[in-house]
Amino acid sequence: MGCGKTTVAKVLARQLNCEMVDLDSFITEREGRSAAEIIQQDGEGCFREIETLALRDVLRKRDMRVIALGGGTWTIPANRTLVALNDVLCFWLDPSFELCWERITSSGGTLRPLAPDRDSAHRLYESRRASYNLATVRIPVYDSDSAETLAEKILTQS
Hints:
By secondary structure, this protein is mainly alpha-helical. 58% of the residues lie in helices and 10% in strands. It has 8 helices and 4 strands, in the order H-E-H-H-H-E-H-E-H-H-E-H. The strands form 2 sheets. Strands 1-2 form a two-stranded parallel sheet. Helix 2 crosses helix 4 and helix 4 runs parallel beside helix 5.
């Protein structure tokens, strides 16, 4: 949350002249409710099942594209397997917790259902790092990095 996945994915897709898919937006369109609504109404387990099915369907389309995964997508082993089976490069945008929290709170939106406050968000951030470390490439993110700079870093690592 707050690392810049969607913003960087849009810039990267524009630079590659290809489609960008935000998995959470794809789920919202398909299900008629947001990830937050699904989690609040049906629980995280139900959302993760929906997310895995959505990821499978997005990956079936073989055209070159950039996919922005939700923050918890990569933490599910079945999702990592789907990504691996489809020969996809996966990049981990890795900012500090402080930078993520600043972005989350300054966005003006509501906090996330799995991270309704700073302590919960920090615990979630720490709990996901081991899974994120399994990504193909880690891209450190600093406050001074623009989305364009991060997209360039990804392109040089591809």
